[in-house]
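Researcher: Next sequence.
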Amino acid sequence: MNQLPDKLINFIQGMPKAEIHIHLEGAIQPETVLKLAKRHKKLDTLPSDNAEGLRRWFTFTDFPHFVEIYLTIQDLIRTADDFALLVYENGADMAAQNIRYREITVTPYTHTDYQDKGLSIDDVLRGLEDGRSQAKKEFGVEIRWVFDVPRNFCFDNGRYDHTIAEKTLDYALQGKDVGVVGFGLGGNEVGCPPEPFAPAFEKAKANGLLSVPHAGETVGPASVWGSLNALQADRIGHGVRAIEDPGLLATLKVQQIPLEINPTSNACLNVFASLDAHPFRQLDDRGLFVTVNSDDPPLFNTSLVQEYTVLAQHFGYDAAGLARIARNAFVAAGVKPRVKTKLLKEFDAWVAQNR
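Model: Next structure:
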């Protein structure tokens, strides 16, 4: 792996960026976990009482370990003020990496219904909006939301229950006025195909939300096909296993469906054996619409800046190539045209000045 020249490192850091695939709970830094644990007197639920110890715990080992961390963090988010804190600190992270726009995935059902934490959707929306407003005021960043359905909660012995998807859609529609732009489908793909979710996604699109399901990560091309055909996907979360199906690659190229690709996440979760084995460059070279994202950055010891560094180090992208991919994320964003036009104008001006 080659050491990058300082000029390219500075280009990556300074380039205005957009990110369209990152999970709120998976973006929490160890220091914030400690704040929440102290706030709710739950330090005893953590394996360490200091940030460095938590950072070691965050170091990914396997998928069960990932789930353990995720559920522990989720249990610490218990009030509207907690959501506001997470979003505000997310905004501070955006400023540090020069990320001008983020679409953050939130799974409201797991906070309001799955656990009895006394949280209502009004609490969630109020906290998200308070944090978003403060982040925009202090850092000038734009944040929007994707509300997603936890697909693996929707099946019992293979039988689909529509209630969670419908409840999540109701929450998403309530949140449109405070930044919800997309309706997603997350969780474990195995045994949870996209097709049964079609009615909820049809309603979401009819109400102006983007269809942005995860697909083609832990399950192969069939999941992506189902998302395109049944869910009328506007973007695909991950989508990398489309590389296994030439017909699917051709369809994705013709339709220019944006892929929200997360290379380090894919390597950590063993979707591919290593970063060098990852098909990002192949997908791009075949003419597909690719973006790069960080997914759950602290859990995979990454950041969006690091993901662009991966593209340069492992796949040989120069500044022009990185800028082209970075621009894709702004184009794929679900934000209103007025804001998107402004963001793209700022991006293009920066690139023109820093060729």
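Model: The first helix runs from residue 6 to 14. The beta strands are 17-23, 99-106, 142-150, 155-156, 159-160, 180-186, 210-215, 236-238, 259-261, 290-292.
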